[in-house]
Amino acid sequence: MVTENVVCCGSLLYTMKHIVVLLLSSAVLLCSAAPALELVTCSEDSGAAAAHLAMHHINEHHDHGYKFRLSETQDIKVVTVDGGCDVELQLKLLETKCHVVTPKHFEDCEIREEYERAVMANCTVMITVKSDDAKVTKYECDTRQAKTNLEMVRICPDCPSLIPLNSPEAMRSVDETVKQFNQNTSNQHYYILQEAGRVLAGYMMMAGMVYYPEVVLLETRCPMGSRIVPEACKPLCPDRAHHAVCRSSYSAKEGLGSVECEFYPPSNVTALSPGEREPVCMPPYHVGPPHPPGSGGPPHLGPPPHAGHGPPPHGPPPHAGHGPLPHPGHGPPPHAGHGPPPHAGHGPPPHPGHGPPPHAGGRGPLPGQKRPPFISHPPHHCRSFNLLRFEPALHPICPWPHPELHPHPKHT
């Protein structure tokens, strides 16, 4: 049975089996026009315009993870040079809930609450202004969780925590989500994993450890029902493919809960000419070997400046740790559309310090578990840039311009 409900701007929300699908058209996502960029000058009063330009540039070149919004301009320096000036900005950014495949403008995206494991970035941005022509020439960002695990335990002891994207538990929950998605026969083609956006983990009394993956899927050339296994299918070019952003819940005891997905149409809808073949593109995701689970990455860098220690803005959300996960086909997923429940159980998580949940730092699959066959991406796309500090549970903002991966040796 299919039920339909009208939601914002004419979108349709309907349930099919136990997959909840949100169809979003291009017109829906462009309900609000992006504000025009202001003129950046060499005056210190132009700080807001310079920060606005920087945010547009950062989001334009941030091709993985989630879009960011400006939280505050912490400092601005203007140095006069011949014919103009050089501007240096110190910006604090906050991660939004909009994945980069979402056409929605970043300024219209919702910022995560603390209990949702908010992510921030401190960025240094260089801008050159000549003859009233301003260009971003360089930026570097330090991306981290807004609060450490220890701080979050003090504020919200039952809130789920982010775990490394290449941990065995994260990979298993992502794999199960993709498999379930491809059982939805209403899709015209199979989809493959583009990337795992984030995976939260929390303890529930009846279900044990529960994992909440958010994944981005990419449409392939393989028609639904073809004999080719989905993970072997070649993806369509990103601009000609549908994308799906899906959220689900998974536990070893209860299996996969409901899967909720938002679909985004191709940005290029130009029809192929008679006899013209679908173009071939390189995959939009990195396929190199991941860091071995358990490497853990470098230690956490600590909280941002002036990190508060009080409760979330609207008070702690209700507990949701009573009873097992819903079985597929028996109602909507918990907190549909809003990720995992804010509080996933009673009592602190098993590792309230700086570590992931049990086994998340192990060096192999869980007992009796095979490693998922096609999740081979590293924890983030900046890995090739030799970042010394990163959290494998996040998608950091990579430096720009990208440094040479293999600089040529100097000849003497």
From TrEMBL:
Any Gene Ontology CC annotation: extracellular region
Pro residues: bias regions: 286-359
Keyword DNA-binding (UniProt): no
Cross-referenced Gene3D superfamilies: 3.10.450.10
Domain of life, per lineage: Eukaryota
Sections of the chain in a coiled coil: none
Record-given protein name: Alpha-2-HS-glycoprotein 1 isoform X2
